Amino acid sequence: MDVYLPIANLSVNGLVIVLLGALTGVLSGLFGVGGGFLTTPLMIFYGIPPTVAAASATTQVTGASVSGVIAHSRRGGVDYQMGGVTVVGGILGTGLGALLFNFLESVGQIDTAINILYVVLLGTIGTLMAKESWGAIKASRSGEGRPRAAKRRHHPLVASLPLRWRFYRSGLYISPLAPLLLGMFVGILTMLMGVGGGFILVPAMLYILGMSAGVVVGTSLFNVMFVTMVSTMMHALTTKAVDIVLAALLLLGSVSGAQLGSMLAQKAKPESLRFILAAIVLLIALRMLYGLSVRPDEIFTVIPL
User: Which of 7, 59, 151, 249 could form a disulfide with 17 if both were Cys (CB 3.0 to 4.6 A apart)?
Assistant: First the structure.
């Protein structure tokens, strides 16, 4: 079933795109991640131009985060004050990201920049996840109890910032500048890479801001929901790289895939799932690194008009 993508300016098998969306949806439900950081690389491997892949993937992340926010909100798992600050930072970040995206596109380096960002981020995150999950697997097999985690505190750099606010739901008394800057960083990545940023935002909220674990995921999804919406609109207005046909096919697959993934997650051990996800992330990073080191079949890029 061939489908023409008007912005990407090529024909693709629609079923393959739906299956790609379903695969990332399964991973989303199975591992508890947004899946955006896997959607873009998989589309690039299939032949979608990196600019169009990154811009269109944000719509899928938006759709997945809405239902998550609703679920966490019902149980009081969203710090709206903290989320509001990170959203403001994220919106500012998407503006900066749009300027950077247009600059890199104008000098013909946007495809390379996207690939390099994915190699660095996925390689780093995959390595850290593999180390942590393998330690948990070994502890589980040997029958040793995992050491009790110390009470989380925010990073010393966060404590040194001025103008402190009380974030009651998160149990914090810190400067709003810290979550604002964090939101800006995630907004820039969202604009450049088509990711929700949750795979960076969640650990940063835990180990840098020192937030309560009970509100981290819900607050992260709250930020992702709004920032990806703004990122999609920013891409549509500035880079004009959002392919609505591609986005619709991805959403169709990811909705059904997420349901299947959530059912499978109930039958597997969490540490094993994290290790498998780490392996998948590292494999994708290595594949993208290989792609940077070889001569492409077609030495040109598609620049949306």
Answer: 249
* Dist. CA 35–CA 24, nearest whole Å: 5
Write the CA distances from 291 to 96, 286, 288, 297, 303, integer angstroms. 28, 9, 5, 11, 20
Alpha carbons 190 and 254: distance in angstroms, whole number: 19
Q: What is the pLDDT of residues 51-86, one digit of tens each?
A: 788 777 777 667 666 766 776 777 787 888 888 888
Give the contacts of 187 (CB within 8 A, at least 6 positions apart). 89, 90, 91, 92, 93, 94, 95, 96, 97, 197, 227, 230, 231
Angle at 153 between CA 200 and CA 195, to 5 degrees: 10
* Segments making up each domain of the chain, as ranges: 2-142+152-293
Cβ contact 40:286 at 8 Å: no
With vertex at residue 33, the alpha carbon angle to CA 28 and CA 38, rounded to the nearest 5 degrees, is 75
Q: What number is the average pLDDT over the span 104-115?
A: 77
The distance from CA 202 to its chain's CA centroid, rounded to whole angstroms, is 10
Whether residue 263 is predicted with pLDDT greater than 70 in this model: the reply is no
What pLDDT is recorded for position 149?
47
Structure tokens at 34: 């947004």
